[in-house]
Design a protein that fits this description.
7 strands; alpha+beta; 129 residues; single chain
Length: 129
């Protein structure tokens, strides 16, 4: 084996190891539903693009927390999760209510509400549509 063959072999081995160690992440997108008083979601799409996953994580981590808005009686416009299927783990799950002024309210867990700016809404709509 010459030096170039050894380098190529090493590159392939390192790349394989890194790929095997990486955890695949998926954004799952759903429509919230209410059937006879029972609320749930119907998943309809998945996003696996790593750049979009990174953008989603950045937006969610930088949201401003707010008090529970009183107008949350209607169904959310969209629900999404950020899942790690190989670990059977859902890192983020959230409902989004879009507002007429271009902003939105995002809800994570039971009572964690966040204000979403117009710029953040544009990014989320790009990812989730």
């Amino acid at each position: 084996m010459n030096k170039n063959s050894i380098l190529v072999f090493c590159f392939i081995m390192i790349s394989s190891l890194l790929f095997a160690c990486s955890t695949k992440e998926i954004i799952r997108i759903a429509t919230p539903i209410d059937e006879k008083g029972v609320e749930g979601v119907t998943f309809y799409s998945e996003v696996t693009d790593q750049e979009k996953i990174s953008q989603l994580r950045t937006v969610v981590e930088n949201l401003e927390r707010i008090e529970n808005p009183k107008s949350e009686s209607e169904l959310a416009d969209v629900f999404f999760t950020l899942d790690k299927p190989e670990e059977n783990y859902s890192e983020i799950g959230a409902y989004i209510w879009y507002k007429d002024d271009g902003t939105a309210t995002l809800k994570r867990n039971e009572n964690n509400y966040y204000h979403v700016t117009k710029e953040q809404v544009d990014i989320l709509k790009d990812i989730l549509s």
